[in-house]
Amino acid sequence: MAPFSRRQVLGAGLGSAALGVLSGCTTPGTTSVNAAPTIPPAHGETVKLTYWSWLKDLQKVADIWNAQHPGVHVEAVWIPSGNSGGYPKMYSALAAGGGPDIAQIEMRTIPEFMLVNGLVDLSRYGAEKHADKFDRTLWNQVSFVDGVYGIPQDSGPMATFYQPKLFAKAGGTPPTTWGEWAELARELRRRHIYIDCFPLSDASVFCSLAEQAGARWFKPTNDGWAVNMTDPATMRVAKFFDKAIDDDLVTTKFEPYSPGWFAAASKGNLASITSASWGDALIEGVSGGSGKWKVAPMPTWDDDGYGSSQLGGSTAAVLANSQHPKEALEFAVWMCSSREGIDALITHCGIGWSPTPDYIGAPRQKPSKFFSGQKYNEKVFVPAAKQQNPDWSWWPITQQSFSILSDEFRHKASGKKLVDCVAAAEKHIMAAFKDKGLSIRKERA
Amino acid sequence: MSVQTTTGTAAETRHDDSGRRPARRRGGAVRRAPWLLLAPFLLLFLFTFILPIITAIGSSFVKVSRSGLFGEDGVTSRFAWFDNYAKALADGNFVASIWRMFLFGIVQVPIMIVAATVLALLLESASAKWPGLFRAAFFLPYGIPGVIATILWSFLYVPGLSPIIDAAKWMGLDVDFLGSGTVLWSIANIVTWSYTGYNMLIIIAQLKSIPGELYEAARVDGASPWRIARSIQIPLIAPALVLTTVFSIIGTLQLFAEPQVLQSVAPAIDSQYTPNLSAYTTAFSYNDYNVAAAQAVLIAVVAFVLSFGFLRLTNRKSS
């Protein structure tokens, strides 16, 4: 072996470095799998599907399917949840030409994956014929242009979790309108209790409230995206919470389900929280809270808007490099809409609200000891799931948009009005759209 | 030559004694040996250090744009010169995060270095009791990962959980560790707590290398312990002080884990609170790897300029 000269080593180094630069420059995801011919279902051989998800014990759910379908074997792989590492992992797998067949992707993140050509259009494999098994609102959120890009897996219809004793102290029962809510909040403040917190650092809650009031921030149109974040519905919510924060009716010191929140809730300094159905599992973590909580429908804007809203929710989407999209679709539909699939997801994975309007899952039909023996799932969340804003649709840079909006909301602490924060955020978000090359225009109201 | 026994086989060694030609072959082996021994390191160094840096620099010059609603009408990437750098610098939040770290460094680094020096001098003084025990105790926080340390501290910062806040309320004081004006210093406290002991150890190592005769001579001349510290110890540990300061300057600009973890309890920490947090957000929340690469390069340049500026400053002073 000849000795390496310094020059040779340097040369080899620069050579591989140049290779690295070149591979860094090629942009993955420039071709769409949905333009290629569809992949026919496999015949004879056993199909192996991998499913990346951050749900615990998902393999137990897959095993039920595997036992019934010897031809299609599903293997679940646990990954960190979306923004804490799961998505970057999926993006890099896609960029490298690999990745799982199915992945758990949040409803609002579907368009971001479409942006990197990461998803299979399931309508090409017959997804439409399953549409009636799913909640219409959720189905609309996975349908874009003429395609279907994921199977709704869980959702989060909203309601108000409250402590009846604290409400009674202020002479109140659960408020049915936001006006009553503000009055009750004022009474509670006289007793040093907050009715709820308003998270300035997580704009998705505000987004859900605007949705309830009837907002529709983004619309895909033939000539690009139309945005309207300053419509009357959103401005109404922003003005309402501007006043609520200025009058000290809600606290902005902590976020829902943070350590500070749990401390306040267990000490009786926080009377209620308007949140999604999956909040029940978290609220059960309030120490000494058993039997002290109940659930009521969320307050409404008496003359306008919808009865409830949605917060959170994810899908089982088929990723672009899957070799068996047809089988993957069948499994996803089974898991998310069959009775045994839903029950298994609730029992083993503690998943959120069922995406089918017909079946909420056997474990959710029993009365809850923690929530004062109330059958709140049937009484409150079943109607809430039907009263969501059906027109809402997500857009390609939701994560960035929520970051921008949250960063604006933080200025509320130094006196800026939420109304102005939303308007400023809209401008930044439009700039971010244009920056990616996407066309966007302000909708004329 | 001692290499003979380590590189040559017995047969070769016998030949080596007899002629010139094998000696040249042995010379080849000698030349080869360092490269062979270094190869594993060099490969790792190349693939995990040099290559990523070059890739980052390369990708910071590329711009990707998409057309259509979801990029379905085509994706193009082109060489963009300094567009990404311009964009990073036009981002008020990113620039603000660098200034924020500047303010942080100006306050936190001197406090930490002074504290580390004082602790080191106290532990190395003749009258110190159980120096080994205390050295270990002061160093202990460094053994706790930043993430865990931040979680621990956050329980002392969160109202409703914190005994400190409760005690302050008792005395009629209303303290808020997580407010927009105070949270930076709450982070500084965690960092100081974590790294003072580490810096102290580096300084102690240098203190130990001061020869005993110097102390003896000083004592014979009647120097007080304070005088010894001022005129002998501090000048002689100057290199350690410079080193720890440079490390701390670089560490300040790379601050990431503490603010990221504290974010979950401190609404005042935004997604671009520190330069590294900003690059992380740009890359993984915004999916804009190119601008994130430009930000990363800018952070490296600023760290380079600051640490070399500091070295120049101290070198000029000493010469």
Automatic annotation (TrEMBL), chain A:
Highest taxon above the source species: Bacteria
Pfam families with a match to the protein in the record: SBP_bac_1
Gene3D superfamilies (alphabetical): Periplasmic binding protein-like II
Keyword vocabulary terms for this entry: Cell membrane, Lipoprotein, Membrane, Palmitate, Signal, Sugar transport, Transport
Protein name according to UniProt: Multiple sugar transport system substrate-binding protein
The organism of origin for this protein: Spelaeicoccus albus
UniProtKB/TrEMBL annotation, chain B:
Entry's localization field: Cell membrane
Residue stretches of biased makeup (Polar residues): 1-10
Keyword Ribosomal protein: no
Membrane topology summary: Multi-pass membrane protein
Primary subcellular site in the record, as a coarse category: membrane
TM region positions: 35-57, 98-122, 134-157, 177-198, 236-257, 292-311
Keywords: Cell membrane, Membrane, Sugar transport, Transmembrane, Transmembrane helix, Transport
Chain segments carrying region Disordered: 1-25
Domain ABC transmembrane type-1 residue range list: 98-310
Single GO BP term: transmembrane transport
InterPro entries for the chain: MetI-like, MetI-like_sf, UgpAE/MalFG_permease
UniProt keyword Cell membrane present: yes
An annotated GO cellular component: plasma membrane
Family: Belongs to the binding-protein-dependent transport system permease family.
The protein's name: Multiple sugar transport system permease protein
Record organism: Spelaeicoccus albus
Source organism phylogeny: Bacteria, Bacillati, Actinomycetota, Actinomycetes, Micrococcales
